[in-house]
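TEACHING EXERCISE
Course module: macromolecular assemblies
Task: Read the component lines below, then compare them to the predicted structure of the full complex.
Student: A.B.
Group: 4
Components provided:
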Amino acid sequence: MSWEPVIGLEIHVQLKTQTKMFCSCELSFGDPPNTHTCPVCLGLPGSLPVANEAAIRFGLKIGLGLGCELAPRSIFHRKNYFYPDLPKGYQISQYDEPLCRGGRLGDVRIHRVHLEDDAAKLVHVGASGRIHGADSSVVDFNRGGTPLVEIVTEPDIRSAERAREWLILLRETMRQLEVSDVNMEEGSLRCDANVSVRRAGESELGTKTELKNMNSFRFVERGIKAEVARQVALLEAGQPVVQETLHFDPQSGSLTSLRSKEEAHDYRYFPEPDLVPVAVTPEMVEAVRAELPELPAERAARYETELALSADSARALAFRPELGRYFEAVLERADGAPAQTVANWVAGELATRLGDADPAQSKVAPDALARLVAMVGEKAVTAGAARQVLDRLVADGGDPAAIVEAEGLGAVGGGDELAGAVRAAIEANPDAAEKVRGGKAQAIGPIIGHVMRETRGAADAGEVTRLVREQLGV
Amino acid sequence: MSDLLALSAAQLAERIRARELSREEVWDTYRERAAADDLNAFLWVAADAPDTGDGPLGGVPFAAKDLFCVRGVPSQAGSRILEGYRPPYTATAVEKIVAAGAPLLGKTNQDEFAMGSSNENSGYGPVLNPWDRTRVPGGSSGGSAAAVAAGQVPWAIGTDTGGSVRQPAALSGIVGLKPTYGAVSRYGMIAFASSLDQAGPLTRDVTDAALLFSVMTGRDPCDATSLEHPEAIRLPSAQDLQGVRLGVPDDVESAAGIEPGVLEAFRATVARAQELGAEVDTCSLPHARHGIAAYYVIAPAEASSNLARYDGVRYGLRVDGDDGLLAMYTRTRHEGFGAEVRRRIMLGTYALSSGYYEAYYGRAQRVRTKIADDFRAAFERFDFVVTPTSPGVAFPLGAKTDDPLAMYLNDFFTVPMPLAGIPAISIPNGLSEGLPTGFQIAGPAFSENRILDAAYALEQAIGFDTAAVHA
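Instructor-supplied answer key:
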């Protein structure tokens, strides 16, 4: 009997505005503790929040990027609970009137997107460095008040692997929107997952649990996988899944309960009286829309449908917009070369050589790469020789034809020259030749290798194979 | 010296400007009186006069209710949980007054976190009414009211959430103005109920109220709910009420606990208003009588959240132990907050809790909207709505401390205005049984200039002697 996981994600994205959500303290990471604070983000008596316009713009940009409906009017609520990292005793968040609703990224629907402020950071002093067994805990308020956007998906994800892949798509989307550093290790991207399972084919949702704060893409996948397995085991043993909040420990792979449904906080949400409603004008939306780049999901879809690229190539180019732009520049100059071939050269060969560097900043001009690809297409150089030319282009730049000429990398044509090289190779490998004649086709390797060595890779491997067979009479 | 005490703040400013009085003489006189305070009106008195330059307030000292944050000065909101707390910044309202030339003389006693109508809820002991020291001065800005009434300071500021400027002004025989919500920045005012709190002046006369308010008002980038006043605030000059239409709510005479002497004084002033040319008619505010009920849901709900920050973690009182975080929170808040504050936190927490929100908070907000609609409708027929400020005169200390509901009814006439966000003033309206009563004038949002003019005209006609208790 098969089970279907049903997964929804809640993602917190720290916005990289200049200043905090409700005060003018600078955002920081890794600075000495409590050096970016003021009466507002410390929650001192009498202080009042003022919403950061840039954060609202970033929120709208995310909303547009995810295809959401932007609310012309949204309001902030107070979410009340006591904790030392929460200096006001409440978080300022959005509740039933969020900034954005609906939307879609890839094949996952977005439920809502809202703005809120981040809590401060608790530092547990003591050998363990964790809350349990700490001698004491101290608070660093530098992070407190950082603008956050919370993105809530519909429960549209059906496997842990897909959750991880989708989260990577979301990260790339946020990165290309230039709204966040989206670094899971540093906490600028955080993910909770709501997980339930049901029998395949059922439409009712099972009881869900919430997995908290998995701080890497791998842990998201592993955590969800472990939770799905746990729920399936329970259900198969005839036991119910209990609604609760769980913590995944990546070290041990275990899941521990943080709190049950009964222990869930009553946050006593009510409209934040210190703030006025966020009024979004059509002008604001248009200004934000004008800044919107083509996002990875759209770009990948365009590459797949318009250029017939493979899904992998499309993603590789779309997830790194600089690669995508470079690819399009080469394609434009490649004079009818197949898009997939150009994609392979850009996303494969070139990207491998350049690492994270932007190809537009490299010595390889799109023109040069386009010519090189064309030369391969015309069989003027072999693929192997072209790789050597690319090495030279990456190192020194220049014109591929000139490099081919200077290095003698031109394809060794058919005719006598190549036939002579093949003859010599057969003579040098009598054993292999004998085996091929005896019907062992794969024994041809050493002979071809010999030819390629002698011609320094300039021979066309297909042509060489044909000639070897011809001369051996097979 | 008695000459100097007989002068209003505006007159003092005038004399200082004309060099007939020195700033030092004014400061020293009031500094001495404030330091000798035997009403428990002051919680802190400045040692030296700060240099405040030449502004329109010309060196006339003022006092601020304890809940206004002042950099380096104890700002405790009348609560033990903030005992000795000295903020690192100054409230906008205080900054503006100081920038206009008035030095801060002291911080005044108040009901804890502005929760109270008698000043008996202060963590630092009750304030005595200078008219009768066995009686309360009203609250929650009781220290400011008593200090002005007793001539310990020329003028003061307080805050009004449900009547906390107007009611103590009335009970102490002075003027108190609650401005339009948003007219004065709340930045640096230790919050009680954010959607209701509004700072205002407590002064000897209407002119002083106008002068002080004129420098307090203005949009503040630190308070998102603040607004620029559409009119510059003028000093009042009206001599009559020709053409002014006054509405008297039809339930004034039957209001719970209204004292005959208060009613008599009110009727007399309404009659004077007619003599001055006003047209008077009864008006209906059908939902205003639910104001107390709505107020005592909304204000505690907001307070329960606003006061969550007093948790012993960062500042103020912490009652430590070795039994964990929750126990520290509980002990700190139990010992730091007084009974009335704890009561309101519990009420507010309940009103906001899941399953009760709609029945209490949601419903109270709808009542609030109805009350605002009532006023809007009334102001189509009338320029102002007038009532007694408080149903009774100053009551004896302890008279209502065991009966919170009786205490809450003191706010019957003052609560509807903050719920509607509109301005109102209380002016001295003669005596009843030898104690001051107040006359309240409420107008539409941002009608302060017109309210001040009407109040000024009535003030001249009433002729109340504010210097009566300065001895």
